[in-house]
User: What shape does this take?
Amino acid sequence: MKKYYLKVITKTIILLGIHFLSHAQVQPEQLYCENRENPIGIDNVNPKFTWILSSQKRNEKQAAYQIQVSESDDFTSKLIWDSEKVESGQSVRVAYAGPEVSSLKTYYWRVKVWNDKGKSSPWSSAAYWQMGILNPSDWKAKWITMGYEEDTLRESPAFRKEFSIQKKVKKATASITSHGLYEAFINGNKIGNACLTPGWTSYNKRLQYQVYDITHMLKEGQNAIGALLGNGWYRGALAWGDNKNIYGSDLALLLQINITYADGTSETVGTGDDWKTHKSSIIFSEIYDGEITDARKSPGDWKNVSYNDNKWSPAVVENFGYDNLMATYNEPVTRHETFTPVEMIITPKGEKVIDFGQNLVGWVQVNVTGNAGDSLIIDHAEVLDKDGNFYTENLRAAAQRNIYILSGKGPENFEPHFTWQGFRYMRIRGNVKDISADNFKAVTLYSDMRKTGSFTTSNELLNRLQHNIEWGQKGNFLDVPTDCPQRDERLGWTGDAQVFFRTAAFNMHVDNFFVKWMKDVAADQSDDGSVPHVIPNVLGPNDGASAGWADVSTIIPWNAYMLYGNKEILKNQYDSMKSWVDYMKNHSNDYLWNTGFHFGDWLFYRPDDDNDGRAAITDKYLIAQCFFANSTQLLIRAARVLGKEDDVTIYTTLLKNIKAAFLREYVTPNGRLVSGSQTAYVLALKFEMLPEVLRAQAARRLVENIKSYDYHLTTGFLGTPYLCFVLSEFGYHDLAYTLLMQQTYPSWLYPVTVGATTIWERWDGRKPDGTFQTPSMNSFNHYAYGAIGDWMYRELAGINNAENPDEAGYKKIVLTPHFTNTFVSDKVKEQNNSEALTEVKGSLNTYYGEIVSHWKVKGKEIIYNVRIPVNTVAELHLPLTDINKLKEGGIPVPDIGEIRAGPGKTGTVLHLGSGSYTFIFEK
Assistant: This one.
């Protein structure tokens, strides 16, 4: 018995030792292909591989890697590419360089690495990707449309077909797209978990298809496949007026199943003239107005086999072609959180209203029982009015209403298919009896991007602000970055997207999301370089070229490169970037761009800022000139990264002329701007429009302006994102923090103090007296002002990417936390009852791993915990002049050989390798 226990103990010690050794050395753990885990249906024939390394040791770097790609997941046979050992530290976006790949084929890959001491990791676990349809000729399915005449409500059509399988299936793949939105089914089960497919693109130029693994859904014998279609973005009403059929008037389906059998044979099943079509129970469906479902009109169990479809019409084959089809690169819209009602309210008007406690985007699931013909009418709203009544005026023409007419056949479940709502409150009407809160659940919808960042502090109001920023992002990232999710708009406004991009990239992995959308920016850009106000462009050819909006074409590609190391987006968007800069140049007079329509500093603090020019306290052409310079600067940087030296020379000269024109037109000899607003000084300083000798005095003028407004901001969409950054850069960080902590209008925290759960479109969407701002433009879920999140992550938590483009994507991390924050005004402190922060924790998952920056004040000491991912380095900037007073892990830093220290602008700079660190010093 003793020998037995001795063997067990010995074996345990050996296993523990192996486990420790495996974690002590660097090894690849998370594997991504095209920035996604095990993607299905990609059409990049040279996909990019990324792997995240882990190690328990500090200062670990990759020195070499080896990738293998196989058609088998065991890699013992069918190996098609072996990179062999490559001496390189690159672990992000390494391109496949093997033999030509085939449509719809699955490939497996693995990687191992060597550290800088020559030690090899074990092979990673196998990951895989599946190709999409690479050639138009690989499409065997045909486009089909309804074989009957629609009624005036344009109901959703159903399509179906049955087919037989007589062999064992090894692999089956479905490739699907549509004109309109689709849901597809096999044997009664929905294919995939995506919603609102095929997503929204500039359909006439770029139409996505989705690929699904349906192997487990097929069975030997008879199988049924079906689909529902809805109007969606393709032919539904969008924007204002009777703006329908923007991309076409037809609804159409293209569906192809590729089956490989165990015996090696294959078969293709696709849409064609052997399909049947019929009206469904969805008798009306529009994005803005909701859906009407009449369960009495259900065709029955049409999604399953043995259904009698003799009364169905034959589908009609159409020749819409395949040339504009492309695989889906970004994450699909899926269901996420589920909310149960917080309470059921009887309003002063006597209406029955449910509160879900969170302004969210998605729909309500209903479970009810009633008689045939009973109806349930569900309206949606973001807020209750001052008296506690249901408020829908700010929805403008959008009904946001779902109607369900019961069949009377026992318990019935309803939810929308091809629409969504933005709401916190739901009003119940109709004649279904015995309705209670238990009959309803709210389900959120947003693009399925993985969460990457977190930000928490010792201040609960700031934590709630961060919550609101995140929920504003969730609610408006439905395949495109919409401005708002509830009224008759829900469009991809370019200005909103560009100001929020960096904040979005902290909260979620938005790389693929914006790569997809930016391709539509380029696709819809006019031949003369003008960039539309909204993308995809549904407003028309003349609605574009506004400063700060059209600059999305340069701002997002550059920031995406810097934050993700994504050189591909610079390559893909470079012509678009250049075309926009050339547009501004061609519409300028002696390099002064003072023509055309501009939104200006949209929705700044004044209530009468409806763009009529009278309320514009910041000259719109001054703003335009600043963005003209900024986009030119970003184009120069992109050209330098891409090796386009001729363009670097040409546009460097242009930039000098743009700034000279700015000085001639908008700056007095003493450095005063013709517009003395906060936004004017912020943009002039942020975009370096002033000579260096004039910048300090300009910053002082900005400070005086803020003080003159009783320590409040007055900025709009274009000035707000940069305001706190400019203050911090010029030594006024305490004032920036003061603005952040203001609780009275206008401020970021004012909406929080009155119960907001998302970011508002206006600083005072709900006024202090409980009334609302103008209902024509008053969204309570509008993320643009949430751009302050970028400053919170970068200045309070201190997480920054390096400014050197060669170290993009957090290959080098710059940590600049502000440990103490005191108000510049005792009056403001007293007004807001706010204290200095005592704790901030920020984290960010990058392509190299997780960065953590967590500081806490404890008595007279500051405890600062840092985590640096493997294969990266970091600069830590501390406001400390005496390095001997700094300890790490209880040891004075000068005694730790692996940490290099030196003087910095504001104290000490530490140079760190990967690993976890705990620093302690006196504040």
Notes: The longest strand covers residues 352-368. Residues 38 and 129 are 5 Å apart (CA to CA).
